[in-house]
Amino acid sequence: DTGVSQDPRHKITKRGQNVTFRCDPISEHNRLYWYRQTLGQGPEFLTYFQNEAQLEKSRLLSDRFSAERPKGSFSTLEIQRTEQGDSAMYLCASSSTGEVEKLFFGSGTQLSVL
Amino acid sequence: AQSVTQLDSHVSVSEGTPVLLRCNYSSSYSPSLFWYVQHPNKGLQLLLKYTSAATLVKGINGFEAEFKKSETSFHLTKPSAHMSDAAEYFCVVSDRSGNNRKLIWGLGTSLAVNP
Questions:
Q1: Contact A106, A7 (CB under 8 A)
Q2: B32 vs A: CB within 8 A
Q3: Residue A35 · residue A61 · CB < 8 Å
Q4: Secondary structure of B64-86 as H, E, C letters
Q5: Which of A26, A66, B1, B113 is the most exposed place for a label (fewest CB within 10 A)?
Q6: Is A49 in contact with B93 (CB distance < 8 Å)?
Q7: Would the CA dihedral through A35, B94, B57, A98 be positive or negative?
Q8: Each residue's pLDDT tens digit, A43-54
Q9: Which residues of A touch B43 (CB under 8 A)?
Q10: Greater model confidence, A75 or A71
Q11: DSSP letter at A31?
Q12: Pick among A49, A101, A109, A110 to test the B interface (most B CBs inside 10 A)
């Protein structure tokens, strides 16, 4: 499968724990995006990378959230001291420089904070 | 600032009948507009996009959308609904403010197709 893959598909955690999600983009894509989606809402932009550089972060991304893309390939999104309000679907997408607006999405990681 | 409004949160049609999902946008620039589809337990998929070429855009699975600047609309249509079209549909506008492009998403329209 050469699409965007995310791991894990589901994560259940207790409030206060740290969680980390991984995203593997399409290999030739140099842009990688993280979005969050809650039930009945459209995806909300969190952050994006061009290669290894994190170029933009949303105000939604509090200090407890950090994203990395150390080698310009896969990316991780870590949430520290999780809160119940963090429960959502976390979506990763990638695109090429030549067609930045055509995003290819992974299936997402569903986070449930108890 | 750019914004997008999907006028219906839920649409229900019978199989074989036409589909119309409505979207209005607000933009200070010439926008790029998109429709994405999200099937249950699957990733979002691009259906079609408008980027200032032909105003009638054809997408995958028989869907098409028409850009109407005078009405600031980008409605999604399909002549004949299929059961497999049941999904969530998102209208999206590209934000060209600043140096970075960012997609502005509508809240989505849930399409149900009845047999």
A1: no
A2: yes
A3: no
A4: EEEEEHHHCEEEEEECCCCHHHC
A5: B1
A6: no
A7: negative
A8: 988 999 999 999
A9: 3-4, 91, 104-108
A10: A75
A11: E
A12: A101
Task: Return d(Cα A87, Cα A84) in angstroms, integer.
Answer: 6
Best residue in B103, B104, B107, B109 to probe A by mutation, most A CBs within 10 Å? B103
Q: Quickly count: other Cβ atoms within 10 Å of residue B70's Cβ.
A: 5
Q: Which residue of chain B is at minimal alpha-carbon distance from A41?
A: B107
Of B66, B61, B105, residue with least CA distance to B83: B61
Amino acid (one-letter) located at B17: T
Question: Can you give the length of chain A in residues?
Answer: 114
Residue B82 one-letter amino acid: H
A101 and B32 within 8 Å at the Cβ level: the answer is: yes
| CA distances from residue B50 to A89, B35, B55, B87, B93 in whole angstroms, order as listed | 27, 9, 7, 21, 10
Residues 6-25, chain B, touching A (beta carbon < 8 A): 9
pLDDT tens sequence across B28-58 = 777 889 999 999 878 899 999 988 778 899 9
Q: Is residue B94 a contact partner of residue B34, using CB atoms and an 8 Å limit?
A: yes
